[in-house]
Specification:
The protein is an alpha/beta fold and 297 residues long. Helix content is 36%, strand content 14%. The protein is elongated, with a radius of gyration of 21 Å. The structure holds zinc ion. Zinc ion binds next to loops.
């Protein structure tokens, strides 16, 4: 199939002129490698004009959007594609309010759909980061860590963040996740999800990392007020200021979704030309997300 490449908005709007153009694209992603009936697993089907397929054996008809995160998008697939394009190719995306204004949907509609896109942006956890990895924690919506940062104040969103560095000390990939507190039991979650056992991890001298060093290769060095973790701290600064300036406030429940979005773009900055196709394929292959699982914010 001819996948959409690049970040050019004019080329994008040329390619996707109608909802039908988008449906056609979805059906290619969904069935490009062959059809499987969802009811009886039969492989033969009739292609229909609206890009749905009807099984030759049981006559079940499946639309291009069924079972994807585009299912029941009421404001039109074209707008949904544009929002996906905006969120994946721009550096900082937009708030739901701005997105609503730009595409003529309500803020609530924009927010709900954007959460679905963020869900599709979440890590598959299939490619843990290895090599040189720096890890540190931070609090969102509160003071920098330091005097009170590692307190157990429950109002602050505590986060652990890991970056993989290139030989030149630049950020190659990153992950961030909310944790309940800065204990070893909480900190190890990012290791289990995202860090390869062979990675050479550096942390500051926080005692919470000591128990984890039994399972992972961790070197603890003085933080020197972040001076020893420059690239990591730059990313922490960026993620915090992005959330503060674009969204001003996010709920505990949804904060990981914003982290997913931020890290998804960072981790694909080398493959930006195919990033739109990547997010559409993820939207098609994600399990259905029910509205009640998404609390607005
Ligand atoms: Zn069938």
């Amino acid at each position: 199939m001819d996948i959409f490449k690049g970040q050019n908005l004019l080329e994008f709007s040329e390619r996707f002129k109608t909802n039908e153009d988008c449906k056609s694209y979805l059906s290619e992603i969904k069935w490009g490698n062959g059809f499987h009936c969802r009811k009886c697993l039969h492989r033969g089907s009739q292609k229909r004009k609206d890009f749905s397929r009807t099984c030759n054996l049981c006559s079940d008809t499946e639309s291009a959007t069924a079972g994807t995160l585009f299912h029941k998008v009421k404001f039109g697939l074209r707008k949904a594609f544009f929002i996906c394009f905006e969120m994946s190719t721009s550096t900082k995306s937009l708030s739901a309010t701005q997105m609503g204004v730009r595409y003529g949907v309500t803020e609530k509609t924009a927010r709900l759909f954007m959460h679905k896109v963020r869900e599709a942006m979440s890590s598959t956890e299939n490619n843990p980061i290895d090599g040189q990895v720096d890890i540190d924690e931070f609090v969102l919506g509160g003071r920098e860590k330091g005097k009170v940062g590692r307190s157990y104040d429950s109002r602050k969103k505590k986060t652990v963040c890991a970056v993989q560095l290139t030989d030149l000390g630049k950020v190659k990939r990153m992950y961030a996740m909310r944790i309940d507190n800065f204990s070893a039991q909480s900190l190890i979650k990012i290791f289990d999800k995202h860090i390869d056992k062979k990675a050479k991890v550096r942390t500051d001298e926080w005692k919470g990392y000591r128990p984890i060093s039994k399972q992972y290769n961790i070197t603890q060095v003085p933080s020197d007020r972040g001076g020893n973790f420059k690239a990591l701290h730059t990313m922490i600064h960026q993620i915090k200021s992005w959330i503060r300036t674009t969204y001003s406030w996010v709920s505990n429940f949804n904060v990981d979704r914003y982290y997913n979005e931020f890290c998804y773009r960072i981790n694909r900055s080398q493959t930006k030309s195919s990033i739109f196709n990547n997010i559409i394929a993820r939207m098609v292959n994600s399990d259905k997300i029910y509205q009640q699982n998404i609390i607005c914010n």
